[in-house]
Structures are given as structure tokens and as C-alpha cells.
Amino acid sequence: MAERLSHAGGSPKPVAPSKPDVIVVGGGIIGLSTAWQLQRDGAEVVVLDPAPGTGASHAAAGMLAPIHEAYWGESHILRLNLAASRKWPAFADALGVDAVDYRRNGMLMAAYDADDKALLDNLGDLHEREGLPVERLRNRECRIREPLLAPGVRGGVHSPLDHQVNPRRVVAELLNRVPTILVSATEVADNQVVADDGRVMSCRQVVVAAGAWTGRLLGLPIRPIKGQILRLSGPEGLLQLPVRGVVRGSSVYAVPRSDGEIVVGATQEEQGFDTRVTAGGVYELLRDVLALLPGLSEINLVETWAGLRPGTPDNAPIIGTGDDGIVYAAGHYRNGILTAPITAAAVAALIQGHEPPVDLSPFRPNRFAAPFGHRDPIDGISGQLSEVSA
Ligand SMILES: Cc1cc2nc3c(=O)[nH]c(=O)nc-3n(C[C@H](O)[C@H](O)[C@H](O)COP(=O)(O)OP(=O)(O)OC[C@H]3O[C@@H](n4cnc5c(N)ncnc54)[C@H](O)[C@@H]3O)c2cc1C
What we know:
The chain has 390 residues and is an alpha+beta fold. It folds into 2 domains: 1-105 and 163-222 and 312-390, FAD/NAD(P)-binding domain (3-Layer(bba) Sandwich); 107-160 and 224-310, D-Amino Acid Oxidase, Chain A, domain 2 (2-Layer Sandwich), CATH 3.30.9.10. It has helices at residues 29-40, 56-59, 75-95, 114-129, 139-145, 167-175, 214-218, 279-292, 340-352, 377-389, and strands at 5-6, 13-14, 22-25, 45-48, 63-64, 107-111, 135-138, 155-159, 163-164, 180-181, 185-189, 192-195, 200-202, 205-208, 223-233, 243-247, 250-256, 261-265, 300-311, 318-321, 327-330. Helix 3 (75-95) packs across helix 9 (340-352). The site of flavin-adenine dinucleotide (FAD) has 44 residues, from helix 1, helix 2, strand 15 and strand 19. Flavin-adenine dinucleotide binds next to helix 1, helix 2, strand 15 and strand 19.
């Protein structure tokens, strides 16, 4: 189905359908990608958000890094992230590779001192066990790949599969394609949304993709995890590769864009819905990144920002239909930019009754319910005993 456009004000804007098939609550990268996928599949869709694109998606660095985001005990997240990475070339193509600054130049992880090297070696063991394509590098080899690295760097890991994109540009492209209404949802059911302007909107299916605010709206265990992040500006090509560093036990990264911007992030803080930038946060990021990449000290600091990652108790996203009939696409924590295309494809498949492109069982919304169901204590105990003895 062709996207419906109006030309009011000169620039074509998608028009909201009067009777949408699907209402998506939340216009960050997850909600917008999902709406766009559904729209491309022929559905009439509208996104509700009072301030689309201003949440975590505006803060994000845009690393598409399944390998450097792999952690022990999170194989199911790794599989989702790898599947997401495979979706990115077509997704970026459809939006315009240059328009979203999608770059497939790999990523380098570097260790600052001997203890940091031990941490990296431990991750290297995980990469090997999972059969991930990485190359372990000595000090000199790291500096050949990225000459800006400090001479003392102890070694590193290069991952050709980890890529990058500019999330702000992705969101801008999606907003050009998907109709939005600038309201906040106050009540949500599977086929109806009440907005803060009093409107009641009906549809066949509601999708909730309200990022860190999803928990507030619907009581799921999603909490905000604050990330402070900086933007530097220097000559194009100053930094050749995205670099992640472990510096005296702390993690820091620098992601170069094609226009000379370098994104430096990010803190991880449990501060509730607080998005203030602090002197301490900026100091720690600059201290660590300049230890790793001293040459960055000469270029301009052009922006400080803080966003809220939507975190879940097990670090995995929530993707699927809840017991309430609402479809959830939320809780993407540190990898929502990477996993936007696969989430969109999975949600579209669910709504259309097709097989999702990945196994969604580890991500089902009701996995945080009581582990043995709502049994009374005596039945509960006997139930557990019979399960053990079976
Ligand atoms: C500092 C930082 C760096 C990051 N770096 C990366 C990275 O390099 N790679 C990566 O993959 N991920 C990264 N992330 C994570 C990524 O940004 C998130 O996982 C992703 O943006 C989540 O997208 P979202 O659409 O779910 O949430 P958001 O972008 O937060 O969007 C949620 C939207 O919901 C709207 N909303 C809230 N309540 C309502 C309501 N009641 N009604 C209607 N709308 C509502 C909000 O206005 C908002 O626009 C980073 C995050 C941070 C903070």
C-alpha cells in the first residue's frame, strides 16, 4: 500500500488514518520502526507520542554491536542481537544508507591497563565459545587499526560484524514516513487508547512501545537507566573506527560519524526519571575517553545529553502479546537501536498471524509473573515437589 502523504507547509507529511488498524503508543525508534513495517505490509497505522523521537533514541550512540554487547549468561539476547544485525543492511537500504549514516566498518574494543586486558580476555573466551568472528589484537595491531589510541593500550579485540548508524537520522527518516498524533496515552487496552486530550481511539490492535515509560503506563517491570553522553566535533576521519574501551575497569566508547561528530558515552545510572547532566558524569566520560584517545582533547565539545534506557530485570526486551491482549515492544535497554528492525518484523508477524523471524519465548511479556503461578502455599509446595520428582 502506498504511504498516504499531505503536502501542507511544503514538506510532505504522512496523514493519520481515521480508522487505523493498529495504534502504536510511543514514537521512539521501536514504535516508529514497528509502525513503518506494519504500514509497508499494508496496514493503516498511527503512532501516538507527545514528543516523538526525544526519548532514549535521541540519546543513543548508534552502535549496532551484537559482538561487543555479548555477555556471559545472555545467549538468548546475543541470538536476538545477531538476527537484528542481519536485518540492518536491508533496513538501512530502505531508509537510505547515506541518509542514516549506516557504516559497516567494524568496531575495536581496547584495554587500557593489565586488569582491563584480563576483563577483555574473559570476554574473548565468551566470543570463542559462541563461535563469534573476532580478531584478538596486540598493542601495536590495535594502533595500526586506530592510530589515535594511546600508546600504552594493552591489546584489543576487533569485530568486523559490529556496525553503526546515526539514530537521530533514522528517527527523522521514520517520522517522514509514519503518521503521528502528538498526544500522550493515558489508558490503554488491546483495541483502544484514551489520550490526554480526552480522545478515545479504537483499532484492531494496540502496540505499546513507550520505552522507559512503559512501566508507568502499564505496570510492567521496566525501569529507566540513565545514560549521560557527549558529542564532540572534529575534522572528518579523525577517528577511523568506533572504539570501545575498558579504562581502569570502567567502560567508555567513542563513535565517529561521517561528518566529523564523535559520540562519547555513556554512564549507567539508576536515578529514576532524572535526565540532568552532571559535572561528575561529564568528567568521568572525558577522563576515560581521553586516557584511551588522547588526541580527542583538542576538538570541540558540542553537546551534553542524558537519556533513559528502558531496562528490564533480566536485561532482555519484552516483545510479544501480553495476557491483556496488548502487543508489547519495550524494554530494549542498551540495544534498542540495533534491535529495532527485528522487533518491527517480529511484531508485524505476530499481528499478521505469521511465524516471527526469531524465537520470542525468552522475551514474552508475562515471564515476570510468579514462577509457579497463583497457587496457595500448600498446593504450591506439593506442586514443586512433584515437578522435582517427575
Ligand atoms: C546514552 C545512551 C546510549 C545508547 N546507545 C545505544 C547504542 O549505541 N546502540 C543501541 O542499540 N542502543 C543504544 N541505546 C539504547 C537505545 O537508545 C534504546 O534501547 C532505544 O532507543 C529504545 O527505544 P524506544 O523506542 O523503546 O524508547 P524511546 O526512544 O525512549 O521512545 C519512547 C517514546 O515513548 C513516548 N511515550 C512515553 N510515554 C508515552 C505515552 N503515555 N503515550 C505516548 N507516548 C509515550 C516517549 O515520548 C518516547 O518518545 C542507548 C541509550 C542511551 C540512553
